[in-house]
Amino acid sequence: MGESARHKASRTLVSAAWLLAFACLLAVFAAPLEAGKLNPVGSVFETEGQVKVLNPGLQRDLSAKKDMELFQRDAVVTGEDSGAKLVLKDDSLLRVGPETTCKLEKFSLDEMAGKR
Fold first, then answer.
1. What would the pLDDT profile of 32-81 be if each residue is shown by its tens digit?
2. What is the rounded distance in angstroms from the CA atom of residue 65 to the CA atom of residue 62?
3. Cβ burial, residue 12 (10 Å; 0-12/13-18/19+)
4. Which residues contact 55 (CB under 8 A, 6 or more apart)?
5. Residue 109 three-state SS
6. 42 close to 90: Cβ distance less than 8 angstroms
């Protein structure tokens, strides 16, 4: 392989590496922006003790607070001697007891008909 062929192959490899790095960064920073596009499925009504809201896809790992919006695929995790009350968009109330993980995997509501 001649010098110019090696140089061209090297440049192509570097370009591919930069493109891959850019794609990874885009994926990391675009995920939180998705939360803005999502409709909340409910909110935190009350917490007691240690309560967290987790969602790796949206890069959420937050202490739960009253009126915090909840999104599909969020997980509400309670610690020892802790609990939470969640209100869903259809006014359902969920009580989450101590040492529990409540995953909001799927939520379906026909707002026009008022049906779940």
1. 444 446 789 999 999 999 999 999 888 889 999 999 999 999 999 999 99
2. 9
3. exposed
4. 71, 73, 74, 75
5. coil
6. no
